[in-house]
Structure formats: structure tokens, C-alpha cells
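Section 5.1 Outputs to date
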Amino acid sequence: MQELEEQLEVAPEPAEVGRARRWVRAQLGRGQPCPARPDEAQKDTLVLLVSELVTNAVVHTGRPAVLRLAVRRQPAPGRNVPVRLEVVDRDGRAPRPRRAEDEETCGRGLELVEVLADRWGWQTEGPGKRVWCELDCAPAEARAVEPPRRGGQAPEVGGKVPARY
């Protein structure tokens, strides 16, 4: 079974959020063997999820954290592969989802995680906690066998090329 597990230490500074976004995008684009191959939209979603999780750790704990990107499970044939993001911090307080009012610029982080991720949760870890989420991505084998598209041409259906709109 192929695996990917990488981690990044995050300082309790707002600039670290941007560094974490760049780091996860670089990890997803490295091309190393991995059971999942997220498409561009899924990569964007994973970057946004990282942004929200790391922002919560930086803003609400004021302590260092560790961001982990993990793909561990080989799915059954035809099944998607969960890509897992985790942020481990040293603050044992439970994350508190809240609903921001229309004009508020903060308070939507965990709400976004809930909407965008396929699964999310948290658990205590030593004196702190681990907040995690997963996004189901296509298995690497599925992307490897897709025929490349040329020049924006639509794929053939039933021996014919569909009309463009």
C-alpha cells in the first residue's frame, strides 16, 4: 500500500496561514507516489480547509501547532481515497463552531470545514487536541488511465463527438 504522510510545524503567527497553504499545495503537486490524485478543484478545497484549520489554531490558541497531510488507506477498487488534514495544537479546549452574523468577517471557519469536507472532527491529544477533516479524492489509478484531452475537445460519446455549446 502506498502512503503519504507529511507534516509542517506552524508558529502562532498569522503569516503562518499563508505558508501552510503554500506548503499543502506543494505537497499535493509533488507527484510522488500516493494513493490519491486530487483534481484542481479538490486541491483548492484542501488548501481552503488548511487555511481554516490553521487559522483557528493560530488565532484561538496562540500556541504552536503541527499541520499533517496524510493519505493512508488503499480503497476497494472503484472507491475514492480520503485525504486527511490534521492540525494538532497544545490547547485542550474543544473547538466551538458558531454561526457568524451576515456582516461579521470572522466566525465561519468550522462552518466552512463542515460544508467542504466529507468528514471532520476533533479529539483530545495529550494536553491539546487534534482537529481533522477528510476529503474523498479519486484514486491515483483512476487518473492514470484517463485518456488525455487534446485542445479542449469534448470526449467521444457513442462514436460521435458531442456538439459544443
